[in-house]
Amino acid sequence: MTRFIHDQFAKDYLETLLTPYGTVQAPRRVAGEVRQIDVWFVPDPTATFSKDALGLLGSITQAIAILEPFRNAASSDEIQDCLLKLLEVLGEQRREAKRNEVRLQVSDLAKLWILTPTASSAILADCRATPSETMLGIYSLAAILQTSIVVIHQLPRTTQTLWLRLLGRGTVQRQAIDELEQLPENHPFRAATLELLYSLQKNLEVIQDQDQDDQELVMRLAPLYQQDREQAKQEGVQQGERLVIENILQTRFGKLDESLQSTVEAALALTPDEFTPLLMQLSREELIERFNQR
Length: 294
What we know:
Elements: H1 2-18, E1 22-25, E2 28-30, E3 35-37, E4 39-43, H2 55-60, E5 65-69, H3 76-99, E6 111-116, H4 121-126, E7 130-131, E8 138-140, E9 147-151, H5 162-165, H6 170-182, H7 190-205, H8 212-253, H9 258-267, H10 272-281, H11 284-292
Parallel strand pairs: 5-6, 6-9
Antiparallel strand pairs: 1-4, 2-3, 4-5, 7-8, 8-9
């Protein structure tokens, strides 16, 4: 049950991050025996968003990508299943190209990315996986297989790898959450990712047989969730007070010019009991003079 919850989080998370840059299907059914790709991504060449914000995740999705995230270390059988999906897709692409009389380039073909928290040296050896020369934690299979394995817990702890390390587990995932929390509040993916993590937390809380990693994940997210909700509540209160102040000023003086807008900002520093009688009793000139002095 917990594995299903984490799998759904991974699909929702990757779909949220990649949707601005192309077409995402999570899952996508492939031909042959019924199989589903966890996340299918096709880049949009007209997308105006820069993928720099996604770091390594943005780099590996420059072309058509099959993303298969695993909560636990991917086994040999699971890696073989992923390869079967890829081969079905490559067959589809070649048949379609033949029908349309189009010559496919290697860059046009889908590439498989297996995202696993850990991988034993034995598994990597069985796959004949070759470590990347540019990034620790990335291993390429034979070129003809169009496949790479990303061992999340081996990735360097940098901003470039943050969005993949959030799919790790244990200490790696919790450290990534710490880094996510420290991002500027206006970061394009911070708020959406936190909401997905809060949803994951709520789903895990109802599971009776949580493992230690899940228990610690729930505990890590609990204060962050509470802090976020308190901030949202405070922002809601302040927004309500702003509307009250603006309504009073508009009722008394009509359209709010620059001077009255400054009055709104200054009045927000007071409590409703303090600012209401002032806004109701003082003249326009008195209000501007009083609040411009604050």
